[in-house]
Specification:
It is a single chain. The chain has 13 helices and eight strands. The chain is of the alpha/beta class. Strands 1, 2, 3, 4, 5 and 6 form a six-stranded mixed β-sheet that branches.
């Protein structure tokens, strides 16, 4: 016999609802526990009672900020945990009766019928990589914001301004010297000097984070394999590694591309088929990484003979730059899946060839008949 426990987890407390088999226990089994050491201890003791009585224990819980900690705690007691994919489980969000007890009851009911869509939880190492990458991203955005403030100030004063003038310490010092040379711009020079100090401090923090990321991934096989791709930088490789983690989770290249959110919406009903924009499901960071990968490949001088780049240029004439880059990003996601699945390094020779647009292929086929 199995005990099914639905958990509605919050920051300060969690509500549980227990079912034994397909029967609901007495309402006394619907109980709230605080998310404190004592609350967890009491709940784990209850699980231990079920285990000692010979019951198997399965728990369903939605994916929230503290789900990882909750999962780790109850798994120590021998319970099997299903973390719910909230994007695919709309029963709770769209319910007209929205209470903690009712939500916990709904989760336990669907868990007992094995109808809960499961969400993947990455391991602790991968979670640390993601946190470092997000911290780096926030710092980079802040640096860009500070530089834009300086650019706007220089433009407002009628001074010559180039986008690259603030990219190096030497360039920033030159801008500061120019301001100091004007006696009527002393206050502006002080403000700019302070902003430059902030930029320098954040830039040093970015270097510290990148050094730590390099140390964490120095022996990572996935990162090393991704770096064999022409045009793939270390930042792009780190992001793909962090948000993919286990390529074995994806049965095919198309499913991996769908996970990245790079496939179009499809509505197929009767004789009507509609294709929409890309789904944008999955990590936004992963989609951005594959777009950056395509742009990195495009910047390389020796990739113009690659079929994927010829396809990009062909699509650009008809679909525009944005759609063509996204299409190439989807193709690169499929190629990355193949590399990581087969555990083979990237071979640029296999990318060389003549791209044949589908309409030209169809015309040649019709002519031959």
């Amino acid at each position: 016999m199995t005990v099914y426990i639905g958990v509605d987890l919050h920051k300060t407390q969690f509500t549980v609802h227990v079912r034994v088999g397909d029967k609901v226990e007495d309402l006394s089994e619907i109980k709230q526990y605080p998310t404190t050491q004592g609350g967890y201890a009491e709940f784990l003791a209850r699980i231990a009672e079920y285990k000692s009585a010979g019951f198997g224990v399965k728990i369903g819980v939605e994916s929230t900020g503290n789900t990882r900690f909750f999962k780790n705690q109850v798994e120590k007691a021998g319970a099997e945990v299903t973390v719910i994919n909230t994007l695919k489980f709309k029963v709770i969000n769209e319910s007209t009766k929205k209470t903690d007890k009712h939500d916990a009851s709904t989760i336990s009911e669907f868990l007992s019928k094995d109808m809960l869509p499961e969400s993947y939880i990455c391991n602790q190492e991968t979670e640390n990589l993601r946190r470092l990458l997000k911290s780096r991203e926030r710092l980079v955005h802040s640096i860009v914001g500070q530089k834009n403030e300086v650019h706007a100030l220089l433009v407002s004063m009628g001074l010559n301004d180039e986008l690259r003038s603030l990219q190096s310490k030497k360039g920033r010092q030159k801008v500061l010297d120019t301001l100091l040379s004007h006696s009527d711009l002393v206050l502006e020079a002080q403000s700019v000097k302070l902003m430059f100090q902030i930029i320098d401090q954040m830039s040093e923090s970015v270097k510290v984070i990148e050094k730590q990321l390099a140390e964490l991934t120095k022996d990572d096989e996935m990162v090393q394999r991704l770096m064999t791709i022409r045009g793939c930088g270390k930042i792009t490789a780190w992001i793909i590694r962090a948000y993919t983690e286990d390529i074995g989770r994806f049965a095919s290249a198309k499913k991996y591309a769908a996970f990245c959110g790079l496939v179009p919406w499809v509505q197929d009903s009767n004789e009507t088929v509609h294709h929409g924009k890309i789904t944008k499901r999955g990590p936004q960071e992963l989609r951005t990484a594959f777009v950056q990968l395509v742009l990195g490949i495009r910047r390389c001088k020796d990739t113009s003979e690659w079929r994927i780049m010829q396809r990009l240029d062909y699509m650009k004439k008809n679909k525009g730059s944005g759609k063509s880059i996204v299409a190439a990003a989807r193709k690169m996601a499929e190629i990355v899946w193949a590399l990581l699945t087969d555990k083979k390094d990237f071979d640029s020779k296999k990318m060389i060839g003549k791209y044949k647009p589908m309409n030209l292929v169809n015309q040649a086929f019709s002519a031959s008949n």
